[in-house]
Amino acid sequence: MTWLRALGLIVRSGLTIERTRLEPLVALRAAAGVATVIGLALWLASPAHAASAAFGAFSAGTATFQRSWRPRKVLALAAGVGLALSTFLGYLAGAHPVPFLLLLAVWSFGAGMAWAAGSTAGIVAATTIGIMLVTITLPTTVVQALEQAAVIAFGGVVQATLILLFPIRRWGAHRDALACALAAVADYARRLRHDPVAPFAPEPMMTARDAAAVTPWQARRRPAALHGPRGLAERIRPVLASLADPRVGAPAEGPERDRARELLKAAGEVLDAAAHSIRRGTPVRAPSEAMEALRSGEDEVLRGPARLAAVRLSDLLREVVETADSGGTHAANAPALVRPTMFRMVPVVLRAMRRELTRDSTVLRHAVRLAGVACLGYLLGNALPLGHGYWVPITSVMVLRPDFHQTYSRAVARFSGTLVGVGLATGVVQLAHPGAYLSGGLAVFSAGLMYLLMHTGYAVSQSFAAAYVVFLLGMGGAEWHQTVRDRVLLTLLGGALAMLAYVVFPAWETPRLLDRLADWLAANGRYAAAVVGSYADPGGGHRAEVRQALLAARKKEAAWDEAFERSKQEPVKHRGLTRSAAQDAYEALKSMGRAAMLLEAHLPGPGVRPVPEAALFAAALRADTARAARDVRERRAPGWERVAAALDAWEGADDGDDPVVRRGAELLLGALEELTAALGTTPLERDVESVREARENRQERPAPEEAAAEAEEEQELRRGRGDGSAPPPEDVG
C-alpha cells in the first residue's frame, strides 16, 4: 500500500461514525462527573482549581471508556491514582529542567512498556504523561504539589462514585461478549447448511473467554447465566463442523444431508434464542419447531459418525437452553476463570514487561519512541517563542501507538479535529465572551460529545476534545488569544514529530509475517498432535491438553490475523512473501485447524479401543511441524516426510471403533501439503498440488515398497540439490 493510499484510508476511518457503537447514557454520566467537579470547585475554590480538577475528572472519565472487563469504577479510581501520582512528581521536578527531563524520560518509557499489559493500560498510562507535562507550568512547592494531586485524584473519585450510584446495564459488556459468541456459533451453523466446509473466525470465542475471567469479587456477584454457556458453545462448534462436513459426517447429497441441514437450522435458531436471552437478561424462548427437530434427532436417517454428532448436538443445545436461564443449576456450579485483582496485577505486569525487553519487541520499540518524542517535544516546545509549548509533547504522546496505522490515523485525525474544534470554540469565545460558569458549561457539553463519539469517528471526537480544552482554559482565566492561536501549529508539530519518530524507528509488521506464520504453524501442530494422540489413549485425560493447545493455537492465529491486517495498511512490502502466498498459507493453516477440530468432535472416551498408529502419527506431526516452523522462518519450504511415512505405516491397520481418526489424519497431511504449495517450490522440486489431488482421489494408499521407492527417489533429489533446501524466494518487494 502506498503512503498516499494509506493516508486516504486513515482520513475516511477517522470521519466514520457508527451509531451502534454509541453509548449515550454512559457518556452522559461521564459528562455529569466533569460537571460535578467543575461546579464544586467553582463554588468552593477558584476557577484555576476547577480547571485542574476538571482535567482529572475528564481523564478518569476517558479511562472508563477503554476496553476492559474490570468494573468501570475501578478503572476510574486507577486512572485517578495514576494521574495524581504523575501530577505530584511533575510538581516536584518541574522547577528543575534537567531532573524533570530525566523524570519525563523514565515515566514515558514506563508508560510505553505498559502496553505489555494491554491497550487499556497503555492508553491510561499515556494520559498520565499529559498531566505531568501540563503541571510544569504551575507553582512547584511540595504543599501545592500535594494539593494539586489531591484535586486531580478527586476527579477520579467523583467519576467512580457516579458509576457506583448510577450503574448502567450492569454486566452489559460481559453479556454482550457471551451473546456474540453464541450468535457467532449460530451464524456458523447457518453457513454450514450451504457451505459444509465454511470457516469459523475464533475472535468472538476469544473475546468471550477474556470476559469470562473475573476477579473473586466479580465471581461472587456475576449472574448465573454468564457461567456456563461459553463452554457449551466451545463444544458445539466442532460437533457442528463434523456433522456438516461430508468427509466425516453426512454425505453431500441425499436424505442424510437433508436431515443435517434441518439440524443445523435448528441449532442456529436455538443458539440465537440463547444469545438474545443472555444479552437482555430474559428467559430463553427457543422456537418450538427447532426444539422438536432436536428431539427427533435419534431417528435412523443419519448413520455412523454423523448420527453420533447429531445426538451430541441435541444434548448440548438442550443444555444451552437450561444454562442460559438465570436459575440454571449447571451454570451456578461452573468454575470461574480467575482474573487477578488490581494489586495482584502488579507482578503480572512486571513479568509481562520483562518479557518484552527484547530487541525485536514492538512494545519496547514503542516505549523508546514514546520517551524520545516526549523529551524532544518538551525541549522543542520550550525553545519556540509561542508559549504553552507543552502542547507539542502532549500531542506526540497521545497519538503515538505501537503500530503504524493507529499512529498515523490518530495524528491526522487529531490535527484535523483540533483545527475544527479550536476554530469553533474560538468563534464562540469571541462572540459570547463567556464567564467562568458559562465556560464551564460549554466545556462539559464538549466533553459529553467527545465521550459519545469516543469509540467511533476519532477525528470528530477530537474536535470536541479541542473545544473542551479551549473552554476549560478560558474558565481558568487564560485568554483565548494566549493559547488558541498557536495551539494549531503546536499540535501539527507534535503530530509530525510522532509520525517522524515512527519512520525513524519503525516496528513494521510486514517483515514479521513469516515469524507469525511459523508460530501459528507450530501451535497448530501441537493442537493437532494432542487431538490425534488422544485416540491412542482413550480416557487418558487428554481433554485438558487438547484445550490448552487449542487456546494457544487461537492466540497465534489471532496474532497472525492482526499482523496480516496491519501489513495491508503499511507502506512497505515483504521481501519474499506475496499477498497471494500469504492468503493461501492462511487458508492451508485454517484447513489444518479444521481437520483437527473435526477429530476433536469425536474424542474417544473410556472403554473405546485405542488406535496405536495414532500415537506414531501424532509424534511425527509434532516433530514435522516444529521443524517446518524453523524452515518457514528461514524462508525454506517445509516438508512432511515423517507425517507421510506415519500415514503410510497406518495402511491396513485396524482403526478401532472410531472410523474418523484415519480420515482426519489424511486431511491433516493434505492441509500441510497445501501449505508447502502456498509457500513456493518444495525442497524436492515436485508438484505438490498434483500429489495432494492424487492422494484425495485414490481409494488406496501406495504399497509400502512403492512408498520406499518414492522416498529413495526423494533422497536422490535432495542429494542433487545439496542440503535439500528450496532456492531463496524471489524478491517481490
Written overview of the protein:
The protein is mostly helical and 733 residues long. The chain has 3 domains: 3-169 and 366-504, no CATH class; 172-222 and 228-333, no CATH class; 516-721, no CATH class. It has helices at residues 3-15, 24-44, 47-63, 72-93, 97-113, 119-135, 142-165, 172-194, 203-212, 216-221, 229-244, 255-280, 288-295, 304-324, 329-332, 345-355, 362-383, 391-399, 404-432, 436-452, 458-475, 480-504, 513-534, 543-568, 579-600, 612-633, 641-649, 660-679, 688-697, 704-721, and strands at 213-214, 337-338. The protein has a two-stranded parallel ribbon. It is globular, with a radius of gyration of 30 Å. The termini are close together. The model is unreliable at 327-332 and 681-733 (pLDDT under 50).
Largest sheet: 2 strands, parallel
Total number of helices: 30
Distance between the termini: 11 Å
Provide the β-strand percentage band: under 5%
Instruction: Using the alpha-carbon principal axes, give the shape.
Output: globular
What is the typical, i.e. mean, pLDDT?
80
Could you say which structural class the secondary elements and strand pairing correspond to? mainly alpha
Instruction: Return Rg in Å.
Output: 30 Å
Provide the domain count: 3
Low-pLDDT residue spans: 327-332, 681-733
Helix fraction by DSSP (H/I, runs of at least 4)? over 70%
Strand order of the largest sheet: 1-2
What's the count of strands? 2
